[in-house]
Amino acid sequence: MTNQMELSVVIPVFNEEEVLISSYERLVAVMRRLTANFELIFVNDGSIDGTRSILNHLRELDAHVRVIHFSRNFGHQIAITAGVDYASGAGVVVIDADLQDPPELIPAMVEKWRAGYQVVYAKRLIRKGESFF
Fold first, then answer.
1. What is the C-alpha to C-alpha distance for residues 47 and 22, in angstroms, rounded to an integer?
2. CATH architecture of 5-114
3. Mean pLDDT, range 81-93, rounded to an integer
4. pLDDT tens for residues 5-21?
């Protein structure tokens, strides 16, 4: 029997101190319903607010939490790449910490992955408060 992590969630963060705890709580609630074998990988992309200390605290409290701190801001895509490279899960989910995309949609995507799809992604059709442009 293998001890490989089943699911890794990569969460790029930049100055997210206001939503970080809520994001963490919602992600943990969702992931615990899916599997006990998961990790949350927060990639701190050079935040200058309290994000670093919050992430360090979460890492101390929860063995599921992994943290990568960048020395400066390298950008969203680099943060995602670093998190995916660090991930040890058989499946990897990428979600932003700002909660614009609800973590509660992850189970439907994981269901597709478990059914054999290699790549599953969601496409937002409408975003509240935004115009066509």
1. 18
2. Alpha-Beta Complex (3.90)
3. 96
4. 899 999 999 999 999 99
